[in-house]
Amino acid sequence: MKNEVTLEEYLSKLSRGKGTWSKLRLVYEKTVKGELKLIDPNPPRTLAEYALRLDYSLWFWTLTVLVLLAVIVVYTSSTIPELTTLRYFLGTLYVLYLPGYVLVEALYPDERDLKPLERLALSIGLSLAVVPLIGLILNYTPWGIRLDPVVASLAIYTLVISIVALVRKYNVYKSTLSQARVIRGRRPS
User: Fold this and answer.
1) 111-168 confidence digits (pLDDT tens)
2) Are the C-beta atoms of 98 and 67 separated by less than 8 Å?
3) How far is CA 171 from the centre of its chain?
4) Nearest-CA neighbor of 71 among 173, 172, 159?
5) Residue 135, C-beta contacts closer than 8 angstroms, at least 6 positions apart
6) Which helix (H) or strand (E) holds 153?
């Protein structure tokens, strides 16, 4: 397009008297209304680049850290009693939100599919459905329903489904990127 400029150039063209935050708010409002479309000048080309760029995959790395932190706190809170409150908080998040959240991200990889409140409600609801199913499956294994198998199986489930969600989000991103190239008159690579 002829009117393509970087975000920095666009901000500098806005009225000089405004502060940076008010300029950024104006850009945000125009983006939400659809009057302005922000395009990454250097988009990731591979899944690895997509996963390593935090502006695309911050949710994935935050989720991974939360799962690891929850597992660590569950096992260390028995020796360090000060972590009990953190164990309750992370345990609740680990059981009642994260399993459903990764499933919602995998089922609806496009951010435009669901509103944030819908994602939250579905995440909690699907967690309430998935966790008992994992427990039912564990009940018929030699390990049974004890702390170690439950923590391990929830961690494995959450991390595997989050990788599936990451791949699906990358595929959606790649298809929207190729559609934008076709619309702009370029051939997809």
Assistant:
1) 889 999 999 999 999 999 999 999 999 999 999 999 999 999 999 999 999 999 999 9
2) yes
3) 14
4) 159
5) 145, 150
6) helix 147-183
Report how far residue 78's alpha carbon sits from residue 61's, in angstroms, rounded to the nearest whole number: 27
Indicate the SS3 state at residue 187.
Answer: coil
Residue reference for tokens 């391990």: 152
Burial status of residue 86 (CB atoms within 10 A of its CB: 0-12, 13-18, 19 or more) = middle
- Provide mean pLDDT across the span 37-42: 79
85's tokens: 């409150």
Contact 61, 54 (CB under 8 A): yes
CB-CB neighbours of 23 under 10 Å: 17
- State the Cα–Cα distance between residues 59 and 162, nearest whole angstrom: 9
C-alpha dist (Å) from residue 79 to 72, 74, 75, 92: 12, 10, 8, 20
- Tokens at 139, concatenated: 């009940």
Could you tell me the end-to-end alpha-carbon distance of the chain, in angstroms, rounded to an integer?
Answer: 18
Count of residues in the chain? 189
